[in-house]
Design brief:
mainly beta, four-stranded antiparallel sheet
Amino acid sequence: MSITSVRAKMICNTLFGADQNGRGVNKVALGAVYSNDQSENADFTKYTPWGSCEMGITEGTPAATFFKPGKKYYVTFTEAPD
């Protein structure tokens, strides 16, 4: 059986402004959700028990205001061409 994507549920752990070579960026850090109860989060814990993702997003762009600390997000990984 071949799959074409992997989906994870992550939470925004931190979001802060930073400087990268003289330009402003927002650094966002996501971590995998974790739960032992009977929720959707527990289903994600079963298949993607841990993980993290960090991104720098240029200030002043629409993406810079998308992430909020404490909010949860679905992340879908698909293979990309070279």
